[in-house]
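**Polypeptide and fold**
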Amino acid sequence: MIKDSRMYTVFALMLASFLTAVDVTIVDTAMPRIIGSLGGFSMLTWVITAFMLTSTATVPVYGKLADLIGRKKVFTIGAIIFLAGSALCGISQSMVQLIIFRGIQGLGAGAIQPTVQTIIGDIFSPAERAKVQAWFSGVWGFSALVGPLVGGLMVDYVSWRWLFYINLPLGALALIMVWRHLHEKVEQKAASVDYIGSVTVTLGLTSLLLALKFGGAELPWSSPEVLALLGGALFLIILFILQERRAKDPMMPLWLFTRPIIGLSVLTTFMVGGVMYGTSVYLPIWAQGVQGFSATKSGMSLLWLSVGWPIASIIGGRFLMKMGSRPAILLGLGLNLAASAGLMILGRTYHDIPAFMFAVVTFVIGSGMGFSQLASVLAVQNSVEWAQRGVATALLTFQRTLGGLVWVSIMGSTMNVTLLRRMQNIPGVGAGSAKEAGDIANKLLDPQTWDLLPAGQLGALREALAAALRNVHILMVVAAALSLFVAFMLPNMHFGGAAADKKTNAK
């Protein structure tokens, strides 16, 4: 009966994870139809940004809440907010409304993802957990594969509003199943809610994420708006650290970072985010802008990342049970470095990189993620007691996203500087700023504009974009190398079976 309850719980959690994961990609396909219905072309990026911003900034707070009041309650709070946001998105009558309601959706998603991983850590032994976590890696891969397809079918045959309405029955099913089959015993203890810590970390991270969103893209890094956001983020994060040092029950206990297995895993995951996001953001730009791939052909190459991840997670689960967490992490990060270096070499060797080589690079990077991220989660979860498992798990989830945003911002700024310098040397282009250079580069991503460019410019512009992206490839190698360097300092954690939740061998 217990096993049946656990399997029902796992199914419900996988369904909830799928809904929040697919919600990132499923909307992309529908954006032209949404804009046609609601207008507001200039605000289209905020439909994605609002969801990502709120779902990322609130992760640490939900992780702490899961330790204070229990995983089931936090999962329920997140699911209800997510479903309410979905319903509101479906009835949106303007782009402003849709952006606000996507932000509400993100508030719910920020609770679901880390809580799901924490629940898995609670109800399974380390040996079982390795297998189950691999299943969840498969969910993320599957969502990346089917999201654009399902989105396209719904837009073509029903309505874009059903992209959000479909969450309601499926999300309600997941919520009911969790309440019926998840049985947890919350550790009762006197705890005071760290309101100051929660507010300062949420506002500080929001300011930082907004600065990364605008800086180097929509506004110069030296603009007053970006500097104000960075200054506000720094001030609030310093206040947060001071608060956590004196709080009776801190929202994020700083002593967690003093444990090598946690502190070094968090730092490694921050670097890994640069490889993951660098691949997903800039590789399609090379495929479409430099080589003229169609969006479909470019997407098919990138989807191999989603194939390699779950396969490596399944294999890695068995590997780390025998060898421990450190060898699995090193293997995964070594694959990331090899693939990033391979991409850098390919970009300098081939004018047109063959599609199958794109697939190989992304598959190897996905495999590296599968090995390293599974081992990191298991090691961190096993290094703390139940009462800290939620916040520790949330830390990893958050750091990977934050690292990705920081690295992507650095990569974007580097690309923009190189792109501007190259374009200024092309006769007749006349790019006077990074923004103008970016606007010109956008034309390379739309096949309908290629024939409108003056004779001879298309090849020169593609070479300028290629030169800019080659610098991005170097930064991906740097991020991968730094993650591997840090990982060599990790202690090795062995998992001894069912009792390993209480007794682990870290040496």
Summary: Confidence is low (pLDDT under 50) at residues 497-507.
